[in-house]
Amino acid sequence: MRRLFGWICIFIMVPIFLLCGFIAGKESQAVKGLGTVLDEKIPIESVQLVENSYVFDHEGRLISEIVTDQQNRTYLSYEDIPDVVKTVYIESEDKRFFEHIGFDAAGMLRAVLINAKSQSVEQGGSTITQQLARNVYLSHEQSYNRKLSELLYSYQLEKTFTKEQILEAYLNAIYFGNGTYGIGTASTYYFNKQIQELSLAELVFISAIPNNPTMYDPVKNFHATKERQERLLQILYENGSISSDELQDALKGSINLSIKTRTDTNADYVTYVHHELKQLIAEKEGFTQQAESAKNNDTLEKQLTEKVNQVLSKGVIIHTALETERQNTLVRAIEQYIPSNNIQGSAAVINHKTHKIVALSGGKNYEKYSFNRAYQAYRQPGSAIKPLLDYAPYIDITGATATSRVDAGEFCKDDWCPENYSGKNYGKVTLETALKYSYNTAAVRLLDQIGIEKGFSYLDPFQFANISDRDHQLPAAIGGVSIGVSPLELTNAYTTFGNKGFFYQNHAITKVTDLNGQTLYEWKEEPTRVWKESTNTQMLSLLSAVVKSGTGQKAYFPSDYIGGKTGTSNNYYDLWFAGLTETYTGAVWVGKDQPANIESMYTQSPQQLIWKEMMK
């Protein structure tokens, strides 16, 4: 009885409240009218509903759906919602929808009388506008304070929007069970069809769900949903919305659920896309600049995360450069050539002509959002650093060529005496011979001759995250750095060889648009000259020799151009191969997450075989 009494109080108080407000507004200019007060206290400019966002590959194929705040929703415009759906909800939920001002006094009174008669809450008396207000702005708390707020929000909605706009928002806001919101999403989720493809029987079937999504869950309570569908069809027939034949056909029409699983593929690549999206928004929205002078980066990071979530919740399309077939090939190659369960591998492939990341492996058996070795694992690069730190700078500074000679004999400085892999000394050899057989003493001499600081200045444009001043020592010439580089970083750097000595920051995201195709964010290309074009020509010759007749022969396959460099860190902890073809650049790392000796894999050269597969 207390609940019924509360309903009666609301029914009586609301008209009195409105009347007093209008009278007060007329009586005194000094007192704000009700409309002004509500505009100040309850400003409503738009109905913001969370929408799904999408990730597409370079051919425009959907690879991942992003659901924010657990609200799986695809928004439909009023024109795209079938008329019979609109009629179903108006007839079953709010017959006087096009007549009332947000709440229906007659409907509320009718609900009070029916509830009083049954001594329970049989009817709520809520209009479609009230339900929209509750779903978007309020909670489902059972209190009279919430109910009064609901009425005021409804009044404001009616002032701001047309009836058609309110009905459109309502049909996109309501819950259809199983994490699905909106009539359009329900259509694709339960039948795996667009709403325009549904039959009358199917349309009314899913329209039955929101009245009580638990009771009318088609997956768990199919028969209950079917019974309500039949009642709704009868209502449509009785008000003349459908004919007798249509009624009979719909009642007999079979309902075959076809539950749609959410598209979410290419976990390695999509995980990186989310990482890069955050970087892109930070760059374009000024967070990157603020971070340089911020005293509290934790606060800034929180604000950035909120901004990213806000962008995704509005519904965007993230266009990427992913080459799905190449990505699949890379993932298979990692599985095929690293059979051991305790050895891992990761890789990245970039189209250096478009400056886009086209494939990326975060590791064997990779799971979405887990540690992604392609860009989060930093390991000593071994001899794979030599072209970047030793050879290209030396050639650029001295004007040397592939046939210029360097001493590959014994070298000692400051009590440090590196050795060649074979333990032998070779005397004077050409730069081509020194690189293709990866002579350590020759590489160290090159860096020593140009100067450590000068050599490292050539790495600055690549922005290696964990190469620091403490690494500015001769052992770095053969990969002896404190932390190391990631496969993606190394791939990025090697793209310079494919761009005549220019370095571009390469990205996975080509652009971010809203659902109407308007561009919201995209990267700006700013090339940096690292070394001269003549230097690059010599380096392409050296790298080609490595693959054709040197330590990288297992990576070879016929191509207009192919070149690369092997790398092995101390104690066989890490195996690397980085290189390029006419169009693509790639790097592969093989090792253990906790660095340990993998000499048993060395002769098999899995890193070269993986590189070969992903680059072909």
Automatic annotation (TrEMBL):
<feature type="transmembrane region" description="Helical">
    <location>
        <begin position="5"/>
        <end position="24"/>
    </location>
</feature>
<keyword id="KW-0121">Carboxypeptidase</keyword>
<keyword id="KW-1133">Transmembrane helix</keyword>
<keyword id="KW-1003">Cell membrane</keyword>
<keyword id="KW-0472">Membrane</keyword>
<keyword id="KW-0645">Protease</keyword>
<dbReference type="InterPro" id="IPR023346">
    <property type="entry name" value="Lysozyme-like_dom_sf"/>
</dbReference>
<feature type="domain" description="Glycosyl transferase family 51">
    <location>
        <begin position="60"/>
        <end position="234"/>
    </location>
</feature>
<keyword id="KW-0812">Transmembrane</keyword>
<keyword id="KW-0511">Multifunctional enzyme</keyword>
<dbReference type="InterPro" id="IPR050396">
    <property type="entry name" value="Glycosyltr_51/Transpeptidase"/>
</dbReference>
<dbReference type="Pfam" id="PF00912">
    <property type="entry name" value="Transgly"/>
</dbReference>
<keyword id="KW-0961">Cell wall biogenesis/degradation</keyword>
<keyword id="KW-0573">Peptidoglycan synthesis</keyword>
<dbReference type="Pfam" id="PF00905">
    <property type="entry name" value="Transpeptidase"/>
</dbReference>
<keyword id="KW-0378">Hydrolase</keyword>
<dbReference type="InterPro" id="IPR001264">
    <property type="entry name" value="Glyco_trans_51"/>
</dbReference>
<keyword id="KW-0133">Cell shape</keyword>
<dbReference type="InterPro" id="IPR012338">
    <property type="entry name" value="Beta-lactam/transpept-like"/>
</dbReference>
<keyword id="KW-0328">Glycosyltransferase</keyword>
<keyword id="KW-0808">Transferase</keyword>
<dbReference type="InterPro" id="IPR036950">
    <property type="entry name" value="PBP_transglycosylase"/>
</dbReference>
<dbReference type="InterPro" id="IPR001460">
    <property type="entry name" value="PCN-bd_Tpept"/>
</dbReference>
<feature type="domain" description="Penicillin-binding protein transpeptidase">
    <location>
        <begin position="345"/>
        <end position="591"/>
    </location>
</feature>
<protein>
    <submittedName>
        <fullName>Penicillin-binding protein</fullName>
    </submittedName>
</protein>
